Protein backbone atom coordinates (compact mmCIF):
# COMPACT_ATOMS: atom_id res chain seq x y z
CA UNK A 1 0.00 0.00 0.00
CA UNK A 2 2.67 2.44 1.07
CA UNK A 3 4.90 1.14 -1.74
CA UNK A 4 2.20 1.81 -4.40
CA UNK A 5 1.69 5.31 -3.07
CA UNK A 6 5.44 5.92 -3.22
CA UNK A 7 5.56 4.69 -6.83
CA UNK A 8 2.75 7.04 -7.86
CA UNK A 9 4.48 9.95 -6.17
CA UNK A 10 7.78 9.20 -7.94
CA UNK A 11 5.96 8.91 -11.29
CA UNK A 12 4.26 12.28 -10.81
CA UNK A 13 7.58 13.84 -9.80
CA UNK A 14 9.32 12.55 -12.96
CA UNK A 15 6.53 13.87 -15.24
CA UNK A 16 6.75 17.20 -13.48
CA UNK A 17 10.52 17.39 -13.92
CA UNK A 18 10.28 16.48 -17.64
CA UNK A 19 7.67 19.20 -18.24
CA UNK A 20 9.81 21.67 -16.36
CA UNK A 21 12.85 20.63 -18.41
CA UNK A 22 11.00 21.03 -21.73
CA UNK A 23 9.64 24.44 -20.67
CA UNK A 24 13.12 25.51 -19.62
CA UNK A 25 14.59 24.43 -22.98
CA UNK A 26 11.92 26.29 -24.98
CA UNK A 27 12.38 29.47 -23.03
CA UNK A 28 16.16 29.45 -22.93
CA UNK A 29 18.15 31.08 -25.73
CA UNK A 30 21.20 29.75 -27.53
CA UNK A 31 21.68 26.22 -28.92
CA UNK A 32 24.11 24.12 -30.94
CA UNK A 33 25.90 25.28 -34.04
CA UNK A 34 27.00 22.62 -36.50
CA UNK A 35 29.10 23.34 -39.59
CA UNK A 36 28.76 20.77 -42.35
CA UNK A 37 30.72 21.33 -45.60
CA UNK A 38 30.85 25.10 -45.15
CA UNK A 39 27.13 25.45 -44.34
CA UNK A 40 26.27 26.48 -40.82
CA UNK A 41 23.18 24.98 -39.05
CA UNK A 42 21.94 26.48 -35.85
CA UNK A 43 19.70 24.25 -33.68
CA UNK A 44 17.47 25.57 -30.96
CA UNK A 45 17.64 23.99 -27.49
CA UNK A 46 14.66 21.63 -28.01
CA UNK A 47 15.84 20.74 -31.48
CA UNK A 48 19.29 19.76 -30.23
CA UNK A 49 17.79 17.37 -27.70
CA UNK A 50 15.74 15.73 -30.47
CA UNK A 51 18.85 15.58 -32.70
CA UNK A 52 20.70 13.71 -29.91
CA UNK A 53 17.87 11.12 -29.84
CA UNK A 54 18.10 10.69 -33.61
CA UNK A 55 21.88 10.22 -33.34
CA UNK A 56 21.51 7.44 -30.72
CA UNK A 57 18.97 5.66 -32.97
CA UNK A 58 21.30 5.96 -35.97
CA UNK A 59 24.18 4.34 -34.05
CA UNK A 60 21.92 1.45 -32.91
CA UNK A 61 20.78 0.92 -36.50
CA UNK A 62 24.39 0.92 -37.67
CA UNK A 63 25.37 -1.89 -35.27
CA UNK A 64 22.28 -3.90 -36.25
CA UNK A 65 23.25 -3.69 -39.89
CA UNK A 66 26.84 -4.57 -39.00
CA UNK A 67 25.78 -7.85 -37.27
CA UNK A 68 23.64 -8.70 -40.29
CA UNK A 69 26.67 -8.08 -42.50
CA UNK A 70 28.82 -10.37 -40.30
CA UNK A 71 26.12 -13.10 -40.36
CA UNK A 72 26.02 -12.85 -44.15
CA UNK A 73 29.80 -13.15 -44.38
CA UNK A 74 29.71 -16.23 -42.07
CA UNK A 75 26.98 -17.73 -44.24
CA UNK A 76 29.09 -17.19 -47.34
CA UNK A 77 32.01 -18.85 -45.52
CA UNK A 78 29.97 -22.03 -44.96
CA UNK A 79 28.18 -21.53 -41.64
CA UNK A 80 24.73 -22.47 -42.90
CA UNK A 81 22.77 -21.63 -39.80
CA UNK A 82 24.37 -18.21 -39.30
CA UNK A 83 21.73 -16.35 -41.33
CA UNK A 84 18.79 -18.34 -40.04
CA UNK A 85 20.07 -17.80 -36.50
CA UNK A 86 20.14 -14.09 -37.17
CA UNK A 87 16.64 -13.96 -38.57
CA UNK A 88 15.16 -16.60 -36.31
CA UNK A 89 15.41 -14.49 -33.20
CA UNK A 90 12.69 -16.45 -31.47
CA UNK A 91 14.56 -19.73 -31.88
CA UNK A 92 16.38 -19.48 -28.57
CA UNK A 93 13.23 -18.36 -26.85
CA UNK A 94 11.33 -21.36 -28.18
CA UNK A 95 14.21 -23.61 -27.13
CA UNK A 96 14.05 -22.44 -23.54
CA UNK A 97 10.28 -22.78 -23.62
CA UNK A 98 10.64 -26.41 -24.73
CA UNK A 99 13.20 -26.99 -21.97
CA UNK A 100 10.87 -25.52 -19.37
CA UNK A 101 7.94 -27.59 -20.70
CA UNK A 102 10.13 -30.69 -20.58
CA UNK A 103 11.06 -30.06 -16.96
CA UNK A 104 7.40 -29.53 -16.14
CA UNK A 105 6.45 -32.79 -17.86
CA UNK A 106 9.23 -34.57 -15.95
CA UNK A 107 7.99 -33.23 -12.66
CA UNK A 108 4.42 -34.30 -13.41
CA UNK A 109 5.57 -37.79 -14.40
CA UNK A 110 4.89 -37.57 -18.14
CA UNK A 111 8.00 -39.30 -19.46
CA UNK A 112 7.05 -39.32 -23.12
CA UNK A 113 6.10 -35.64 -23.26
CA UNK A 114 9.34 -34.80 -21.47
CA UNK A 115 11.29 -36.81 -24.03
CA UNK A 116 9.67 -34.98 -26.99
CA UNK A 117 10.27 -31.60 -25.38
CA UNK A 118 13.85 -32.54 -24.56
CA UNK A 119 14.54 -33.47 -28.18
CA UNK A 120 12.98 -30.21 -29.37
CA UNK A 121 15.00 -28.17 -26.90
CA UNK A 122 18.17 -29.96 -27.94
CA UNK A 123 17.59 -29.04 -31.60
CA UNK A 124 16.69 -25.42 -30.91
CA UNK A 125 19.25 -24.59 -28.22
CA UNK A 126 22.23 -26.70 -29.16
CA UNK A 127 23.30 -26.71 -25.50
CA UNK A 128 23.83 -30.38 -24.63
CA UNK A 129 24.87 -29.70 -21.03
CA UNK A 130 21.36 -28.37 -20.41
CA UNK A 131 19.28 -30.73 -22.49
CA UNK A 132 21.15 -34.02 -21.96
CA UNK A 133 20.14 -34.22 -18.36
CA UNK A 134 16.49 -33.78 -19.32
CA UNK A 135 16.85 -36.43 -22.02
CA UNK A 136 18.46 -38.88 -19.56
CA UNK A 137 15.80 -38.36 -16.92
CA UNK A 138 12.98 -38.62 -19.43
CA UNK A 139 14.53 -41.80 -20.88
CA UNK A 140 14.70 -43.31 -17.39
CA UNK A 141 11.10 -42.41 -16.74
CA UNK A 142 9.92 -44.09 -19.93
CA UNK A 143 12.07 -47.13 -19.13
CA UNK A 144 14.52 -46.56 -21.99
CA UNK A 145 17.61 -47.55 -20.00
CA UNK A 146 19.83 -47.74 -23.05
CA UNK A 147 19.11 -44.19 -24.11
CA UNK A 148 19.59 -43.03 -20.51
CA UNK A 149 22.99 -44.75 -20.27
CA UNK A 150 24.06 -43.24 -23.58
CA UNK A 151 23.12 -39.78 -22.43
CA UNK A 152 24.82 -40.17 -19.05
CA UNK A 153 27.98 -41.21 -20.87
CA UNK A 154 27.76 -38.00 -22.90
CA UNK A 155 27.46 -36.06 -19.65
CA UNK A 156 30.58 -37.78 -18.29
CA UNK A 157 32.68 -36.43 -21.17
CA UNK A 158 31.95 -32.82 -20.21
CA UNK A 159 33.86 -31.43 -17.25
CA UNK A 160 30.92 -29.40 -15.99
CA UNK A 161 28.48 -32.31 -16.04
CA UNK A 162 30.79 -35.22 -15.21
CA UNK A 163 29.49 -35.70 -11.68
CA UNK A 164 25.88 -35.84 -12.85
CA UNK A 165 26.81 -38.42 -15.46
CA UNK A 166 28.74 -40.65 -13.06
CA UNK A 167 25.97 -40.43 -10.49
CA UNK A 168 23.36 -41.33 -13.12
CA UNK A 169 25.25 -44.44 -14.23
CA UNK A 170 25.87 -45.35 -10.59
CA UNK A 171 22.15 -45.23 -9.85
CA UNK A 172 21.47 -47.44 -12.87
CA UNK A 173 24.01 -50.00 -11.66
CA UNK A 174 22.45 -49.91 -8.21
CA UNK A 175 19.05 -50.60 -9.72
CA UNK A 176 20.51 -53.48 -11.71
CA UNK A 177 22.02 -54.88 -8.53
CA UNK A 178 25.59 -54.57 -9.79
CA UNK A 179 26.95 -53.39 -6.44
CA UNK A 180 30.58 -53.89 -7.36
CA UNK A 181 30.50 -51.45 -10.31
CA UNK A 182 28.23 -49.10 -8.39
CA UNK A 183 30.80 -48.95 -5.59
CA UNK A 184 33.59 -48.00 -7.99
CA UNK A 185 31.40 -45.33 -9.58
CA UNK A 186 30.42 -43.98 -6.17
CA UNK A 187 34.10 -43.68 -5.28
CA UNK A 188 34.68 -41.79 -8.52
CA UNK A 189 31.70 -39.51 -7.90
CA UNK A 190 32.85 -38.78 -4.38
CA UNK A 191 36.33 -37.90 -5.65
CA UNK A 192 34.63 -35.28 -7.86
CA UNK A 193 32.43 -33.97 -5.04
CA UNK A 194 33.82 -35.01 -1.65
CA UNK A 195 31.07 -33.24 0.29
CA UNK A 196 28.10 -34.76 -1.55
CA UNK A 197 26.06 -36.31 1.23
CA UNK A 198 23.91 -38.70 -0.77
CA UNK A 199 26.93 -40.19 -2.53
CA UNK A 200 28.69 -40.56 0.82
CA UNK A 201 25.73 -42.53 2.17
CA UNK A 202 25.46 -44.71 -0.91
CA UNK A 203 29.18 -45.44 -0.88
CA UNK A 204 29.20 -46.19 2.85
CA UNK A 205 26.31 -48.59 2.41
CA UNK A 206 27.99 -50.36 -0.50
CA UNK A 207 31.31 -50.56 1.32
CA UNK A 208 29.81 -52.07 4.45
CA UNK A 209 27.86 -54.56 2.37
CA UNK A 210 31.05 -55.50 0.52
CA UNK A 211 32.86 -55.67 3.87
CA UNK A 212 35.37 -53.05 2.72
CA UNK A 213 35.83 -51.80 6.28
CA UNK A 214 38.92 -49.68 5.64
CA UNK A 215 37.16 -47.91 2.75
CA UNK A 216 34.06 -47.42 4.86
CA UNK A 217 36.11 -45.83 7.62
CA UNK A 218 37.56 -43.28 5.23
CA UNK A 219 34.09 -42.47 3.86
CA UNK A 220 32.85 -42.05 7.41
CA UNK A 221 35.71 -39.63 8.08
CA UNK A 222 34.76 -37.56 5.04
CA UNK A 223 31.18 -37.45 6.36
CA UNK A 224 32.49 -36.11 9.65
CA UNK A 225 34.68 -33.54 7.87
CA UNK A 226 31.72 -32.37 5.79
CA UNK A 227 29.82 -31.84 9.02
CA UNK A 228 27.00 -34.29 8.27
CA UNK A 229 27.70 -36.48 11.27
CA UNK A 230 27.80 -35.56 14.96
CA UNK A 231 31.09 -36.52 16.53
CA UNK A 232 29.60 -39.04 18.99
CA UNK A 233 27.78 -40.89 16.22
CA UNK A 234 30.98 -40.86 14.19
CA UNK A 235 32.93 -42.35 17.10
CA UNK A 236 30.43 -45.11 17.62
CA UNK A 237 30.26 -46.03 13.92
CA UNK A 238 34.00 -45.81 13.52
CA UNK A 239 34.28 -48.21 16.45
CA UNK A 240 31.88 -50.61 14.78
CA UNK A 241 33.97 -50.48 11.61
CA UNK A 242 37.23 -50.93 13.50
CA UNK A 243 35.65 -53.90 15.23
CA UNK A 244 34.57 -55.31 11.88
CA UNK A 245 38.15 -55.02 10.68
CA UNK A 246 39.15 -57.10 13.68
CA UNK A 247 36.23 -59.47 13.44
CA UNK A 248 38.11 -62.54 12.48
CA UNK A 249 37.90 -65.02 15.32
CA UNK A 250 40.63 -64.14 17.76
CA UNK A 251 42.25 -67.52 17.68
CA UNK A 252 45.92 -68.25 17.15
CA UNK A 253 45.78 -66.96 13.59
CA UNK A 254 44.65 -63.48 14.62
CA UNK A 255 47.27 -60.96 13.64
CA UNK A 256 48.60 -58.28 15.93
CA UNK A 257 46.85 -55.78 13.67
CA UNK A 258 43.47 -57.40 14.23
CA UNK A 259 44.06 -57.37 17.97
CA UNK A 260 44.89 -53.67 17.74
CA UNK A 261 41.70 -52.99 15.79
CA UNK A 262 39.67 -54.70 18.51
CA UNK A 263 41.36 -52.65 21.21
CA UNK A 264 40.90 -49.47 19.19
CA UNK A 265 37.21 -50.24 18.66
CA UNK A 266 36.82 -50.65 22.41
CA UNK A 267 38.63 -47.37 23.05
CA UNK A 268 36.34 -45.53 20.60
CA UNK A 269 33.15 -46.97 22.06
CA UNK A 270 33.66 -48.65 25.46
CA UNK A 271 29.99 -49.66 25.70
CA UNK A 272 30.00 -51.67 22.47
CA UNK A 273 29.72 -55.18 23.91
CA UNK A 274 31.32 -57.20 21.09
CA UNK A 275 34.23 -54.73 20.94
CA UNK A 276 34.80 -55.01 24.68
CA UNK A 277 34.69 -58.83 24.57
CA UNK A 278 37.05 -58.92 21.63
CA UNK A 279 39.46 -56.38 23.07
CA UNK A 280 39.51 -58.32 26.33
CA UNK A 281 40.38 -61.49 24.43
CA UNK A 282 43.12 -59.58 22.61
CA UNK A 283 44.58 -58.54 25.97
CA UNK A 284 44.30 -62.09 27.29
CA UNK A 285 46.32 -63.26 24.30
CA UNK A 286 48.89 -60.58 24.99
CA UNK A 287 49.15 -61.85 28.57
CA UNK A 288 47.55 -58.77 30.12
CA UNK A 289 44.68 -60.09 32.27
CA UNK A 290 44.44 -56.86 34.27
CA UNK A 291 43.70 -54.79 31.17
CA UNK A 292 41.15 -57.41 30.06
CA UNK A 293 39.40 -57.28 33.46
CA UNK A 294 39.28 -53.50 33.36
CA UNK A 295 37.69 -53.42 29.92
CA UNK A 296 35.02 -55.99 30.79
CA UNK A 297 34.14 -54.25 34.04
CA UNK A 298 33.71 -50.97 32.20
CA UNK A 299 31.42 -52.51 29.58
CA UNK A 300 29.47 -54.43 32.27
CA UNK A 301 28.76 -51.12 33.98
CA UNK A 302 26.96 -49.98 30.85
CA UNK A 303 25.25 -53.27 30.05
CA UNK A 304 25.67 -56.73 31.57
CA UNK A 305 25.90 -59.25 28.74
CA UNK A 306 26.64 -62.98 28.47
CA UNK A 307 29.46 -62.37 25.94
CA UNK A 308 31.24 -60.24 28.51
CA UNK A 309 30.81 -62.96 31.12
CA UNK A 310 32.28 -65.54 28.77
CA UNK A 311 35.28 -63.35 28.00
CA UNK A 312 35.68 -62.70 31.73
CA UNK A 313 35.69 -66.45 32.38
CA UNK A 314 38.47 -66.87 29.79
CA UNK A 315 40.81 -64.63 31.79
CA UNK A 316 41.49 -67.52 34.19
CA UNK A 317 40.58 -70.76 32.40
CA UNK A 318 42.10 -73.09 34.99
CA UNK A 319 40.49 -71.81 38.19
CA UNK A 320 38.14 -73.99 40.27
CA UNK A 321 34.38 -73.26 40.24
CA UNK A 322 34.65 -71.75 43.74
CA UNK A 323 37.50 -69.50 42.69
CA UNK A 324 35.47 -68.46 39.68
CA UNK A 325 32.43 -67.50 41.76
CA UNK A 326 34.73 -65.41 43.94
CA UNK A 327 36.48 -63.72 41.01
CA UNK A 328 33.15 -62.94 39.31
CA UNK A 329 32.05 -60.81 42.27
CA UNK A 330 34.09 -58.07 40.60
CA UNK A 331 31.37 -58.08 37.90
CA UNK A 332 28.29 -59.24 39.77
CA UNK A 333 28.46 -56.53 42.42
CA UNK A 334 28.23 -53.80 39.74
CA UNK A 335 24.55 -54.37 38.83
CA UNK A 336 23.32 -56.86 41.42
CA UNK A 337 19.64 -56.50 40.47
CA UNK A 338 20.20 -56.90 36.73
CA UNK A 339 18.65 -59.98 35.16
CA UNK A 340 21.87 -60.96 33.41
CA UNK A 341 23.92 -60.59 36.60
CA UNK A 342 21.53 -62.85 38.50
CA UNK A 343 21.47 -65.49 35.79
CA UNK A 344 25.28 -65.54 35.56
CA UNK A 345 25.58 -65.77 39.34
CA UNK A 346 23.08 -68.66 39.42
CA UNK A 347 24.95 -70.45 36.63
CA UNK A 348 28.27 -70.08 38.42
CA UNK A 349 26.83 -71.38 41.68
CA UNK A 350 25.22 -74.34 39.95
CA UNK A 351 28.61 -75.26 38.50
CA UNK A 352 30.10 -74.86 42.00
CA UNK A 353 27.25 -77.10 43.27
CA UNK A 354 26.08 -74.46 45.72
CA UNK A 355 22.40 -74.85 44.83
CA UNK A 356 20.84 -72.81 47.67
CA UNK A 357 23.08 -69.89 46.69
CA UNK A 358 22.07 -70.33 43.05
CA UNK A 359 18.40 -70.23 44.06
CA UNK A 360 19.06 -67.09 46.09
CA UNK A 361 20.79 -65.48 43.10
CA UNK A 362 17.79 -66.10 40.88
CA UNK A 363 15.47 -64.74 43.54
CA UNK A 364 12.10 -63.66 42.14
CA UNK A 365 13.31 -63.63 38.54
CA UNK A 366 11.45 -66.86 37.89
CA UNK A 367 8.13 -65.49 39.12
CA UNK A 368 8.49 -61.99 37.64
CA UNK A 369 10.13 -62.23 34.23
CA UNK A 370 11.14 -65.81 33.75
CA UNK A 371 12.57 -66.66 30.35
CA UNK A 372 13.77 -69.95 28.93
CA UNK A 373 17.20 -69.57 30.49
CA UNK A 374 15.87 -68.82 33.99
CA UNK A 375 13.54 -71.86 33.92
CA UNK A 376 16.33 -74.11 32.70
CA UNK A 377 18.53 -72.94 35.57
CA UNK A 378 15.65 -73.65 37.96
CA UNK A 379 15.47 -77.18 36.56
CA UNK A 380 19.21 -77.60 37.19
CA UNK A 381 18.87 -76.28 40.75
CA UNK A 382 15.98 -78.64 41.48
CA UNK A 383 17.90 -81.56 40.09
CA UNK A 384 20.97 -80.57 42.13
CA UNK A 385 18.87 -80.42 45.28
CA UNK A 386 17.49 -83.87 44.56
CA UNK A 387 13.94 -82.99 43.55
CA UNK A 388 11.86 -85.55 41.68
CA UNK A 389 12.14 -85.81 37.91
CA UNK A 390 8.58 -84.64 37.56
CA UNK A 391 9.54 -81.32 39.14
CA UNK A 392 12.69 -80.97 36.99
CA UNK A 393 10.82 -81.81 33.81
CA UNK A 394 8.03 -79.47 34.80
CA UNK A 395 10.55 -76.61 34.79
CA UNK A 396 11.96 -77.72 31.47
CA UNK A 397 8.50 -77.88 29.93
CA UNK A 398 7.95 -74.35 31.21
CA UNK A 399 11.20 -73.28 29.58
CA UNK A 400 9.93 -74.63 26.28
CA UNK A 401 7.00 -72.24 26.40
CA UNK A 402 8.87 -69.22 27.76
CA UNK A 403 10.26 -66.30 25.76
CA UNK A 404 13.90 -66.65 24.79
CA UNK A 405 15.15 -63.51 26.57
CA UNK A 406 17.23 -60.71 25.07
CA UNK A 407 18.96 -61.24 21.74
CA UNK A 408 20.64 -59.20 19.01
CA UNK A 409 17.71 -57.50 17.32
CA UNK A 410 17.82 -55.13 14.36
CA UNK A 411 16.28 -51.77 15.29
CA UNK A 412 15.31 -51.27 11.68
CA UNK A 413 13.60 -54.51 10.63
CA UNK A 414 13.31 -56.27 14.05
CA UNK A 415 15.03 -59.35 12.70
CA UNK A 416 16.70 -61.55 15.32
CA UNK A 417 20.33 -62.43 14.59
CA UNK A 418 22.32 -65.24 16.16
CA UNK A 419 25.42 -63.10 16.62
CA UNK A 420 26.40 -59.47 16.49
CA UNK A 421 27.49 -58.02 13.15
CA UNK A 422 28.06 -54.49 11.83
CA UNK A 423 25.42 -54.96 9.12
CA UNK A 424 21.96 -56.47 9.56
CA UNK A 425 21.86 -59.67 7.56
CA UNK A 426 18.19 -59.21 6.83
CA UNK A 427 17.81 -55.57 5.73
CA UNK A 428 21.45 -54.61 5.21
CA UNK A 429 21.37 -51.51 7.40
CA UNK A 430 24.50 -50.51 9.25
CA UNK A 431 24.95 -50.55 13.04
CA UNK A 432 21.33 -51.30 13.90
CA UNK A 433 21.76 -54.43 16.05
CA UNK A 434 21.08 -53.93 19.73
CA UNK A 435 20.76 -56.35 22.66
CA UNK A 436 17.09 -56.45 23.58
CA UNK A 437 14.14 -58.72 24.16
CA UNK A 438 12.42 -59.26 20.80
CA UNK A 439 8.99 -57.67 20.48
CA UNK A 440 7.61 -60.29 18.14
CA UNK A 441 6.08 -63.46 19.56
CA UNK A 442 8.48 -66.32 19.08
CA UNK A 443 7.97 -69.33 16.90
CA UNK A 444 8.81 -71.73 19.72
CA UNK A 445 5.75 -70.68 21.69
CA UNK A 446 3.39 -71.30 18.78
CA UNK A 447 3.95 -75.04 18.90
CA UNK A 448 5.01 -75.00 22.56
CA UNK A 449 1.64 -73.88 23.88
CA UNK A 450 -0.04 -76.46 21.76
CA UNK A 451 2.17 -79.32 22.97
CA UNK A 452 2.43 -78.38 26.62
CA UNK A 453 -0.63 -80.20 28.07
CA UNK A 454 0.41 -83.36 26.22
CA UNK A 455 4.00 -83.21 27.47
CA UNK A 456 3.27 -82.31 31.08
CA UNK A 457 0.36 -84.73 31.21
CA UNK A 458 2.51 -87.55 29.88
CA UNK A 459 5.26 -86.73 32.35
CA UNK A 460 2.91 -86.72 35.33
CA UNK A 461 1.34 -90.04 34.32
CA UNK A 462 4.74 -91.55 33.93
CA UNK A 463 6.13 -90.37 37.26
CA UNK A 464 3.01 -91.60 39.05
CA UNK A 465 3.03 -95.00 37.42
CA UNK A 466 6.73 -95.78 37.75
CA UNK A 467 9.77 -93.85 38.95
CA UNK A 468 11.26 -93.83 35.49
CA UNK A 469 13.40 -90.77 34.66
CA UNK A 470 13.67 -91.66 30.96
CA UNK A 471 11.52 -89.62 28.57
CA UNK A 472 10.16 -91.47 25.58
CA UNK A 473 8.97 -88.53 23.56
CA UNK A 474 11.95 -87.60 21.36
CA UNK A 475 10.67 -84.03 21.06
CA UNK A 476 10.78 -83.49 24.81
CA UNK A 477 14.27 -84.94 24.99
CA UNK A 478 15.37 -82.49 22.34
CA UNK A 479 13.87 -79.62 24.28
CA UNK A 480 15.67 -80.69 27.41
CA UNK A 481 18.94 -80.85 25.54
CA UNK A 482 18.53 -77.45 23.92
CA UNK A 483 17.54 -75.71 27.10
CA UNK A 484 20.16 -77.33 29.23
CA UNK A 485 22.86 -75.82 27.02
CA UNK A 486 24.11 -72.95 29.23
CA UNK A 487 24.66 -75.30 32.13
CA UNK A 488 26.38 -77.86 29.95
CA UNK A 489 28.81 -75.26 28.72
CA UNK A 490 29.75 -74.26 32.22
CA UNK A 491 30.17 -77.88 33.21
CA UNK A 492 32.42 -78.49 30.25
CA UNK A 493 34.56 -75.57 31.28
CA UNK A 494 34.91 -76.95 34.72
CA UNK A 495 35.98 -80.29 33.27
ZN1 LIG B 1 17.62 -55.27 9.77
UniProtKB/TrEMBL annotation:
Keywords: Membrane, Transmembrane, Transmembrane helix. Its main location: membrane. Coiled coil: none annotated. It is found in: Membrane. The keyword Transcription does not apply. The chain crosses the membrane at residues 47-76. InterPro entries: HemY_N, Mms48, TPR-like_helical_dom_sf. GO terms for cellular component: membrane. Residues 30-143 form the HemY N-terminal domain. It comes from the Bacteria. This is HemY protein.
Amino acid sequence: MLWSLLKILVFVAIIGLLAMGAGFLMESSGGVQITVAGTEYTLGPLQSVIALGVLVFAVWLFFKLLTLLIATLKFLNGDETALSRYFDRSREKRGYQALADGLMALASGEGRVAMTKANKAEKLLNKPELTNLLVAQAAEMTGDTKKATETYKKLVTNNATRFVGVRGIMKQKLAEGDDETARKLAEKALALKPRHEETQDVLLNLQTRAQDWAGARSTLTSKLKAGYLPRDVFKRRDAVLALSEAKVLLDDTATVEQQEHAIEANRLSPDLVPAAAMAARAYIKKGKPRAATKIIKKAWEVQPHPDLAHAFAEIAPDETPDQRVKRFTALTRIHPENMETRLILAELNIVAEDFPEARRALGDVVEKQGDARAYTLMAAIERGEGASDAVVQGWLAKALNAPRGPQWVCDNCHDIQPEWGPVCQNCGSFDTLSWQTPQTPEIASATGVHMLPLIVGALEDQSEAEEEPEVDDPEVEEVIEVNAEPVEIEQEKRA
